[in-house]
Amino acid sequence: MWKPSEYRYGGKSPTERTHDSVMPRRPRGEVDEWAALQRLQDEAAVRGEQGWKEQRKQEQKDYMEYIQQQMEERRRSEEREKREKKRELEDAQRSLEVLREEEQRSKQKQKEEASRVKEMYDRQLRDRNHAVRLNSELQKLQKRKALLGEDLTSATFGAGPRFSMKAQATPGPGAYNAVDPYSQLIKRSFNITIEGSMFLQDLLRWEEKQKDLEKRKERERSMLKADYRETLAESIEERKRRQEEQKLVEQRRQLEVLEQEKQQTLLAQQRSERDRQQQKESYREELRIQMEQDKERRKHQFRMSEGEMRLNQRSLHVYTDQAHNGDSLDSFPPIMHDFGYEESFRAVSNKARPRGNSSSSDQSSARLR
Hints:
By secondary structure, the protein is mainly alpha-helical.
């Protein structure tokens, strides 16, 4: 015999029935909510892992692109350094060529100056030899003059010391006329000798000045060469030091950028992991709340509204009338607490119409109205 309590408050589950002519509906199976929650969590974890793998793959791709970019920048910097070194070598070669040209010019000037000085020395030597020759001729002429003067004095005034001294002191006009060409020659030779000695003194002074000037120029040239070499070495060292400093600064900057990117990647991973965890927790909380609500709703779903209660009462009256009148009971009575679907209510209303006895049908119609 049918017991309503079996279907209302426990016992045999209504899901075991597969067909109900009074209220046809699909059998409601029990749902393992925790299994569904676990399955959803597993699916979310799989999706999260796939997303994390995709993100990791994209990060690796970006990192490889960054590494390639860094390698390209390093290659460009090395090429730039090679070009700078080549330019420095070319500058050094040009400077050495300039120094060689200056040395060649200075050597040529020295050769020209030496040849000029040699010619001047040769000329001075010739002038000196000529002056010596003139001096010797002058001495000879002076001796001849002295001899001629003695001869003229002795011939004019006779012998004797008084007359000879007078003749030597005051010679006559003939004597002056006789020695005049010799006097002019003597004066000219004397002047030439004086001028030659003055010229030689000036030449010696000029040679000393030229030597001092050449020494000073050589000293200045050596100082300029030393300064140029020192300046060139300092410029090369300064450039190398500056390049090393720039390289160190660039390496530090790259390390800082890599560290920042690593920190950002770690923070992004932590943030994504935290977001996934929060999302999982929020989803778990939503499912828990939904499960509690479903549990609460199942616990209180036997509390029907007034319309449901009237429909239940009318359908029960119809079934009772059928059972009382002896009609064929080809269906089970409706489940009292399961009127959550409108089509079920319509099905119950349609199936609950009485058949056979007119009195019972009228009564049921009056009750339904």
